[in-house]
Amino acid sequence: MDLRRLAVLAAALAALAGGWWGRGAEASIHTYDREPFHEVGNSFLLSGGSEGIVADGADPAAPTSSFIKFVNVTFWRTSEAAELHSKMAHSTGLVQAILFEAADRDNIGGSAYGGQRSICCTPDLAKLEGCKQGEVIRRPSSDDPDWPYVLDTHFSGNHLSVRLDDEVVRVTKTGMYNLFFISCDPKLRGLTMSGKTIWRNPGGYLPGRMAPLMKFYVLMSLAYLLVMIVWFSQYIRFWRDILPIQNWITLVIALGLFEMTLWYFEYLNFNSSGVRPVGITTWVVTVGAIRKTISRLLILSISMGYGVVRPTLGGLTSKVLLLGLTYFLASEMLDIAENVGTINDISGKARLFLVLPDAFLDAFLILWIFTSLSRTLEKLQARRSSVKLDIYRKFTNALAISVIASVAWIGYEVYFKATDPFSERWQSAWIITAFWDVLAFVLLVVICYLWAPSQSSQRYAYSGEAADDDDEEAQSLTKGDGEVGMVKMDKDRNVGVSNAFSLEDEAEEDKRE
């Protein structure tokens, strides 16, 4: 496939990829600070959270390890709503907590005569469904008649607040659980809530869809450590022949190891405490943003032929650094928004606002990388630098394969999310995140293999015509002794022409870039 066409295809899909990638997840201790209820249909509703929970077994005598606990949950109504009732009235407003598994979502609410679906029971629905008017419509689950689980709380007299009894709800079935606080009383407009709920899995407080990532980051840390040991041993052994590009590769390996290790300890802390401290999570995503930025600039620099067909990036250095700084800021803001605190704090529009810059910058980088790589290959072919050309062809193949794999995976992500709107396949959702880390690691390993430190590293460095002479001399060594003199004479006769061609080529490159 033509490189420019491949670049355009990758860039077009990069914008789509940005909207689907992320590591965000809710904290397992959900805190509510006077959160307002919103009018939805004929009810006032507040989402309390959604998490995948693994069942702790059906033995009632065993200690509870999977549960959802309500702690200090308090509902507040407006003074206007409270003044509508006398001080001695018994029940002056009902608020219900509804906890259900995603598979039972159709057991909440109903529709009268094929009309719009209602959450609260109306007079018509009371006749059809047998529900109680003024309460949430609930039908028992086919698996467990006690579910969906409902907790009722009534305001008394003209009190402004009422507290829900602290209760622990044991989870005996693995699934994606959703919690909603609902009021069907039209007089409770302006209702707010404070308190917290604690969600726990058998292995700790990590949400079920995040738990596998903790083990994944251990494996990735070990993989980066192995690459670091092998690379650094070669780096020390041939330190006199190290190229500038190899120093940047070393930095990317170190940042990758540091990032994977930090993610593991961040998840470990989250699993044991149930919260994600802002400082720790911000530090982790910052290291990740730095690693992603330097990785992309490394690939761009290699594609431009830095240190191979040109000694520096010249006038492009400032543009590359500006693009890197812009990408870092966009990536940092997106990662902080998706990982720091609770993802529910970000609305869809706010997240889209952060995703678009990151996606467009990725698309622009892909275009620039493949365009520069195409020019570098043309230069090497024209100069007949066979050894360098072989390396760059392998690098091109690796990039092309990674782009094709990315495109295929983006398609799978779109299918995965489109066919699972209620996150019922949450147990395998961690693979979506893990793939991009694995792909970045594999591409880094390929770069390490192609530009591994060795005693002949300087042969691949930019040295004017000396680099081309080395390639031709290497080829001449494979010929017979009688051919050596002929090769040498050909080189001496053509050196002036070659130098002129090189200058013209560099001038043309500067014009194009």
Automatic annotation (TrEMBL):
Q: Superkingdom of the source? A: Eukaryota
KW Translocase (keyword) present: no
Q: Which residues cross the membrane?
A: 216-236, 248-265, 277-299, 311-330, 350-370, 391-410, 430-452
Keyword list (alphabetical) reads:
Membrane, Signal, Transmembrane, Transmembrane helix
Q: Name the Pfam families on file.
A: GOST_TM
Q: Name one GO cellular component term.
A: membrane
Membrane topology, from the record: Multi-pass membrane protein
Compartments where located? Membrane
Signal sequence region: 1-27
Question: What are the start and end residues of every segment in region (Disordered)?
Answer: 463-491
Q: Where is the GOST seven transmembrane domain?
A: 212-458
Principal cellular location given in the protein's record: membrane
Know the name of this protein? GOST seven transmembrane domain-containing protein
